[in-house]
Each structure stands twice: as structure tokens, then as C-alpha cells.
């Protein structure tokens, strides 16, 4: 498989995002970042860490349905149906980093790796170029947010990219098992994220599930430290209350400490998060309230599909379906609060 150099990538950036119908051609004597890097519904681009715009032309002579995932199982483009003979263009922006998934996990494969899937995948063309003026959305969180490395697990941050327009890239630094205490203490986590924040970047913070023995004053102070650290760099912090645990009462409600993330010391994590947001003028996504309403509306049986109850008897971690639904709730709030524009970019 032919691979690209950094010089070739820079030259290819001048191609723009509108693709011709013909296959990828040489540009300036150097190979374009195109289909020659794809085989058997997988594409590999030998590029350094950074942020890249990807534009695809989907469809063919027959009706098709195509989905694009990349790196550590991130959904970058939701399943897209195309009619026979009527190709469509879609674009997204992707963050390439090492480690490519959880910050304390394996490094993964260097470069950008994409998988072309779906019910009937049809990739007609592809271009990858360095992103210009991309806005990063950093995620600080735990296992319910992170890029989970293996099925059937998925964090909502892993599914968020499919909802965003080109020009907005998700840099998911959520990590399994982390509390506010450990996230601030581990140099691979907050000390790695904060220096990367640029003016205007969003930083979504959801930490609570593992603060089981964190007292209220410490939990509050840790959230305030994260908020201050984002603002110090010119970024925009967004506090996110934790997703509920699927732990029902006999009356079909989730009105209990296990479901609503009240820890063993009696600290009500969502309540403290709301208070910190209100006191500091920080945008808040009340994901606890939103997931509670959804889970209760689905009931004890219908809500199982959101979590890994059927597979693992797990009422904390989400399935791909659940993570996708919860990522949609996050996107809706980001749009409603004017933090990201609505809709995806369509090219052509």
C-alpha cells in the first residue's frame, strides 16, 4: 500500500474539499491523498499527529449505505444511504494522536486509519488534507465518555464526531477509571490536555463515576481547578453532569443514590456540578437529567439496550447504541446553547 509523506500532504491541501468524479490523481508531481491508500474497505494514511479534514464521495451504480469509523472505533460519519447512480459528498474533521484512544492505553497504529462499513458500503473517492482553523472539542471524562478499545463497549465521546460539522474535531482524552482526583494527578491526562487548548476551543468535563470516596469540598475544588485551567488557555469550559446508572426503583423511577451518582460520603455529584457551573458562569449540560428522563421513559426493559445489561449485566457502561443516543443529547445541548453550529457540512 502506497503511503504519503508530510510534504505530499501539505501539497494536497490546495486541492480543497470539492472532489472531482475521477479517481485521485497526482498533484504537483506528488500523489494525492486518495483512494490508492484504501483496500478492502480500509484506508491508511501515513500522516503525523494533527487534525485532518476528510471528504468522501459515497455511492455507485447500485443503492448503497455507508458508514465511516476511524482510529479507536470512533464513528466519524453516520450510516448514509445513497440512491443508485446518485453519489453524495460528506466531510468531517478528525483528530489523529498518540495514544489514539484512551490516554493511558496502547499507542495504537501511527497515522490515520479509516474503516468503510455499513449495510452496503460504497466509497467512490476520498481526500484527506490538513485541517485549517479547526476547532477542537476536548473531552475530559471517564469510561462512560472515552474511546473504548473493544466491543461491546462505547463511550458517548466515541460517538460524538458523527454529529459535528467539518471544522470541529473531537479530541477525546477521557480515560477509564478516572476521578477528578486521578485526572488532575496523572501527567498523561490533564497535564497533557491543558497545554493543547487554544482560544475558542471547547473542553467538556464529565467526571463523577469514580469519585466514590471524594469528599464534597475536594470534588468542588477539582472541578473549579479544571474550569480555571481551561480559561487560562482561552478555552471555553463546559461542565457535564454524569450519565445515570440504570438502577430502577420498584416504582420505575431512578430516584436513588446509585442511579443519580451520590457517592458513599453522600456527595451529590450532579448537584455539585450544577452549583459550580452556576457560580462560575460555566455552560452546563445536565446529562444526568436528560439520561434520567430517557431511561425512565423507556422503562426497565426498553432501557436495557442503552447499556450493556444484556451482554454484561452492566448498568453503568453504554452499548454503541446507547453511546450514540447519549452523544446526540450532548450535541443537541451544544447546539441549543450556541456552542457549535447545527448540522453537518455537505459538499457538492
Automatic annotation (TrEMBL):
Belongs to the 'GDSL' lipolytic enzyme family. The keyword Hydrolase applies. SUPFAM superfamilies: Galactose-binding domain-like, SGNH hydrolase. This is Rhamnogalacturonan acetylesterase. Residues 140-291 form the SGNH hydrolase-type esterase domain. The lineage of its organism: Bacteria, Bacillati, Actinomycetota, Actinomycetes, Kitasatosporales. Keywords: Hydrolase, Signal. The keyword Hydrolase applies. Residues 1-20 form the signal peptide.
Amino acid at each position: 500500500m502506497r503511503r504519503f509523506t508530510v510534504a505530499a500532504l501539505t501539497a494536497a491541501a490546495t486541492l480543497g474539499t470539492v472532489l472531482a468524479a475521477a479517481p485521485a490523481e497526482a498533484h504537483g508531481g506528488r500523489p494525492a491523498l486518495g483512494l490508492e491508500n484504501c483496500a478492502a474497505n480500509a484506508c491508511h494514511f501515513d500522516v503525523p499527529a494533527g487534525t485532518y479534514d476528510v471528504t468522501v464521495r459515497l455511492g455507485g451504480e447500485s443503492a448503497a449505505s455507508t458508514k465511516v469509523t476511524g482510529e479507536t472505533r470512533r464513528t466519524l460519519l453516520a450510516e448514509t444511504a445513497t440512491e443508485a447512480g446518485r453519489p453524495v459528498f460528506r466531510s468531517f474533521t478528525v483528530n489523529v494522536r498518540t495514544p489514539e484512544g484512551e490516554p493511558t492505553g496502547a499507542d495504537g497504529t501511527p497515522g490515520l486509519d479509516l474503516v468503510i462499513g455499513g449495510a452496503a458500503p460504497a466509497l467512490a473517492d476520498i481526500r484527506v488534507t490538513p485541517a485549517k482553523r479547526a476547532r477542537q472539542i476536548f473531552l475530559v471524562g471517564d469510561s462512560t465518555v472515552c474511546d473504548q478499545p473493544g466491543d461491546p463497549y462505547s463511550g458517548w465521546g466515541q460517538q460524538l464526531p458523527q454529529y459535528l460539522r467539518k471544522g470541529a474535531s473531537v479530541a477525546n482524552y477521557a480515560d477509564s477509571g478516572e476521578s477528578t482526583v486521578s485526572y488532575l494527578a496523572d501527567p498523561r491526562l490533564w497535564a497533557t490536555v491543558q497545554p493543547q487548548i487554544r482560544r475558542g476551543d471547547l473542553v467538556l468535563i464529565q467526571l463523577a463515576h469514580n469519585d466514590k470516596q471524594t469528599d464534597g469540598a475536594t470534588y468542588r475544588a477539582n472541578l473549579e481547578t479544571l474550569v480555571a485551567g481551561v480559561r487560562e488557555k482561552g478555552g471555553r469550559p463546559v461542565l457535564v453532569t454524569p450519565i445515570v446508572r440504570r438502577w430502577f426503583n420498584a416504582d420505575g423511577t431512578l430516584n436513588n443514590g446509585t442511579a443519580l451518582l451520590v457517592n458513599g460520603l453522600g456527595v451529590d455529584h450532579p448537584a455539585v456540578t450544577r452549583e459550580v457551573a452556576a457560580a462560575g458562569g460555566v455552560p452546563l449540560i445536565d446529562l444526568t437529567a436528560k439520561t434520567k428522563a430517557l431511561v425512565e421513559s423507556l422503562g426497565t426493559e426498553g432501557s436495557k439496550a442503552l447499556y450493556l445489561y444484556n451482554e454484561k449485566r452492566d448498568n453503568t457502561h453504554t452499548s454503541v447504541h446507547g453511546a450514540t443516543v447519549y452523544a446526540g443529547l450532548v450535541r443537541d445541548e451544544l447546539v441549543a446553547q450556541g456552542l457549535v453550529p447545527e448540522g453537518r457540512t455537505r459538499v457538492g
